[in-house]
């Protein structure tokens, strides 16, 4: 794996930062050596990938000697020989490049047309890879959820603060992110544009959350009553009707929904069970100490981390289990590839994928502090939250992006955009 090409978190409010950095030199040339544009903490050109488009934004209108702008583009790492448009006027702040193809990386550079000096290049080169997918990440420490661009290089928007998030789940059909927070009275729903609304539920202290998207069923924990409920996943409703399952728990710690059923883990009693809406409780496992991760596999399988991440167990709906010893650093989060059935484990220093039969088929080393993982089964990408950053890889382990600036990535949710 290649971890050398690192990308910084692109702050959405770059224009405000730029203006504040230069407020005391309104009449200076923006490329004056005394200026602040050589400081990489200020992004002079922000580039945001979208679906079949790339949006470029900048703001130099507070300078008096700018006559216009010229945008240059190259494909990949090629030379900047292509002018996208005729020169833009001095009031321009944005350009949308629609002449792009999803999955192709483009590099952009901005040139300022300065009075009496001609064309002067801004030093910053920005890259973007448009695509249909989007990623949502939740940072539990900051209490903020972020929607990222398809390539993961920049944040499109942020919403918060949530005081104590217990779960996040993405409705791929509507594009909405649902958030459960134990200090808030209803489920919080963030739409694709960043607008926030609340859906009332009859639970005083909301717990963990998981979605069965194909069957439009949501599963929700109740931290006060220590119950698990399910509901019809509907759009636009103000109140959810909950059905409480006929099983009791000491602490509902994890949920993993799939195919009209849900795996449920109770960390206090060391218990995991599979519950079906039609057939009620299907199977139960006990003696699972130190539960730390849970995922639903294919064909009724479940995967669970136990013994503080030292062991991965495959659970079968027929009652069988397979124990797999993990590397010394252990595992912290799980995700299942819905195409192959492989279970991916993010650990303190390794990423490992196990086949449905329990064979280690992939292992990457050198990525420290893994705490969250998600699989894009359509675009064939792996997203990992580790070490205060979000990483995006191909299934073969090629690093595509590293986006830093987070504290504790509590959840990663991917919409492939199919």
Please render the helix and strand layout as text.
Layout: H1 14-21, E1 46-49, E2 54-57, E3 66-75, E4 82-83, E5 88-89, E6 94-97, E7 106-114, E8 118-128, E9 134-139, E10 144-148, E11 155-160, E12 165-171, E13 176-181, E14 186-190, E15 196-200, E16 206-212, E17 217-222, E18 227-232, E19 243-244, E20 252-258, E21 261-266, E22 271-276, E23 280-285, E24 293-296, E25 302-306, E26 311-315, E27 321-325, E28 331-336, E29 343-347, E30 350-354, E31 360-365, E32 370-376, E33 381-386, E34 389-394, E35 399-404, E36 409-415
Antiparallel strand pairs: 1-2, 2-6, 3-4, 3-5, 3-7, 7-8, 9-10, 9-36, 10-11, 12-13, 13-14, 14-15, 16-17, 17-18, 18-19, 20-21, 21-22, 22-23, 24-25, 25-26, 26-27, 28-29, 29-30, 30-31, 32-33, 33-34, 34-35
The whole-number mean of residue pLDDT values reads 87
**CATH superfamily (homologous) name of the domain at 14-128:** Immunoglobulins
Q: What is the distance, rounded to the nearest whole angstrom, between the alpha carbons of the first and last residues?
A: 28 Å
Which strand-content bin applies to the residues? over 45%
Multimerization status: single chain
CATH architectural name of the domain at 14-128 = Sandwich
Radius of gyration equals 24 Å
Number of strands: 36
Summarize the amount of helix as a percent range: under 10%
Largest β sheet strand count, sense and barrel closure = 5 strands, antiparallel
Shape: elongated
- The low-confidence runs, each spanning 5 or more residues with pLDDT under 50, are 1-43
Identify the CATH class of the domain at 14-128. Mainly Beta
CATH topology of the domain at 14-128: Immunoglobulin-like
Class inferred from helices and paired strands: mainly beta
Number of helices: 1
